[in-house]
């Protein structure tokens, strides 16, 4: 019965292992560059930003139609309960005779009106619509860069966490060898069983850390897949080496050049242009408007078709609107001055942001060098500790401490390299 139980358990474990291997074999692995491409193609925020450009383009086309004549048509028919025209007519030798007519009829008009002068409102509206379209394009580019950076953040986080798994695997391998050696010592009566239990406990702690990391890896993998618009069941990333990064100088960009690459600066400058046009629009509302046109008339009210063509000319002067309009103009001028202040303020803040990102990049690279030295020292310390433990000149506590330092130093190096890659992505986002 016991053998049967062990056999069933063995078969279940084998089945689970084969299922895991099959699932991993079916996963499609992507490079960072491919992940970025997929996000730019499939991400919802980017798609919506593209639609905003399309909407702005329709607004621009709508504004352009305002330069053409405005044509309208109207038709009406009526039937009265009584004749619309009633009265009397004097007839020689017969006296007054009653008169009534137009009990029903049809009226139709076709009017075309061409604006000649609108105080510059049509021209400025077209300029504003064009600028708004350019603003949407800049916002789209900003969204693309934000999504790209998000992809890079998740990608390097995933790489870092998997590097931590590799570190724990290496530490567990060291502990496994110590466990075998300690088992031999216990069997030979050289050491107590307590040392063996301490090694086994350390391995269990390592397994627990791996379980937590694997759960975190799965969550980050799903988040990255969703960001890229990929199949969450089969998506995965390719393994990459992050332990030999390039120096920060490879990515350096002069601050003044970087400012010229930032969409935020161009957006604030276009805000100035939009507010300047708004001032002109408010002024135009207080200026006379002139339009010419023609109207075609058709009517049938006395069983006879009649028509006419009328020329039209209109001049409109908003006299009562001058007083209230002057306040609108002043308000628009205030907004214009604010936008000019924002240009200077934005450039100064972005310059500080770029410098801060550069400093963070250099600091992250320096942390890698520090972590490398720690790894070298931890590796040597573990080697010496194992030799001393084998020789019986070191106890288990010191050996396990050496394994802990080994794990921590390698984990710190992996995290530092992944953090440096994230700092590269952040710096490039702020300078390119």
Blueprint of the fold:
Layout: H1 2-26, E1 28-30, H2 32-42, H3 44-65, E2 70-79, E3 85-91, E4 95-101, E5 104-117, H4 121-188, H5 193-228, E6 235-237, H6 255-261, H7 263-285, E7 289-300, E8 305-316, H8 321-391, H9 396-431
Parallel strand pairs: 1-6
Antiparallel strand pairs: 2-5, 3-4, 5-7, 7-8
Helix pairs in contact: 2-4, 3-4, 4-5, 4-7, 4-9, 6-8, 7-8, 8-9
Descriptive overview:
- There is one protein chain.
- This protein is α+β, with helices and mostly antiparallel strands.
- The protein has a single domain, classed as Outer membrane efflux proteins (OEP), CATH 1.20.1600.
- 69% of the residues lie in helices and 16% in strands.
- The strands form 3 sheets. It has a 4-stranded antiparallel sheet, with no helix packed on it. A two-stranded parallel ribbon has the order 1-6.
- Helix 4 runs antiparallel to helix 7.
- The two termini are 70 Å apart.
């Amino acid at each position: 019965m016991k053998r049967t139980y062990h056999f069933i358990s063995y078969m279940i474990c084998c089945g689970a292992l084969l299922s895991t291997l099959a699932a991993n074999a079916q996963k499609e692995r992507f490079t960072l560059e491919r992940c970025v491409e997929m996000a730019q193609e499939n991400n919802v925020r980017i798609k919506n930003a593209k639609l905003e450009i399309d909407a702005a383009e329709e607004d621009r086309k709508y504004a352009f139609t305002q330069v053409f004549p405005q044509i309208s048509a109207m038709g009406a028919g009526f039937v009265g309960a009584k004749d619309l025209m009633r009265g009397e007519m004097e007839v020689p030798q017969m006296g007054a005779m009653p008169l009534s007519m137009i009990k029903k009829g049809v009226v139709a008009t076709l009017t075309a009106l061409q604006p000649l002068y609108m105080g510059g409102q049509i021209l400025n509206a077209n300029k504003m619509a064009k600028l708004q379209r350019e603003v949407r394009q800049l916002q789209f580019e900003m969204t693309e860069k934000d999504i790209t950076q998000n992809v890079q953040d998740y990608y390097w986080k995933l790489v870092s966490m998997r590097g931590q798994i590799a570190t724990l695997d290496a530490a567990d391998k060291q502990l496994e060898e110590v466990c075998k050696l300690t088992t031999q010592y216990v069997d030979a009566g050289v050491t107590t069983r307590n040392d063996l239990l301490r090694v086994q406990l350390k391995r269990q702690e390592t397994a627990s850390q791996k379980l937590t990391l694997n759960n975190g890896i799965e969550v980050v993998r799903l988040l990255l897949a969703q960001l890229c618009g990929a199949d969450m069941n089969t998506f995965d990333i390719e393994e990459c080496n992050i332990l030999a990064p390039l120096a920060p100088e490879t990515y350096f960009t002069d601050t003044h050049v970087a400012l010229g690459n930032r969409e935020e600066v161009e957006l604030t400058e276009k805000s100035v242009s939009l507010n300047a046009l708004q001032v002109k629009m408010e002024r135009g509302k207080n200026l006379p408007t002139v339009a010419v046109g023609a109207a075609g008339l058709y009517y049938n009210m006395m069983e006879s078709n009649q028509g006419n063509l009328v020329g039209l000319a209109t001049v409109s002067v908003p006299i009562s609107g001058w007083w209230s309009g002057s306040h609108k103009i002043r308000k628009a001028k205030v907004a214009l001055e604010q936008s000019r202040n924002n240009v200077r303020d934005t450039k100064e803040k972005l310059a500080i942001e770029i410098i801060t990102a550069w400093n963070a990049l250099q600091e992250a690279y320096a942390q890698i060098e520090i972590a490398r030295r720690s790894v070298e020292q931890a590796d040597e310390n573990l080697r010496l500790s194992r030799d001393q433990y084998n020789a019986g000149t070191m106890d288990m506590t010191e050996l396990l401490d050496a394994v802990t330092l080994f794990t921590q130093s390698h984990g710190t190096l992996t995290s530092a390299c992944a953090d440096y890659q994230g700092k590269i992505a952040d710096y490039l986002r702020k300078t390119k």
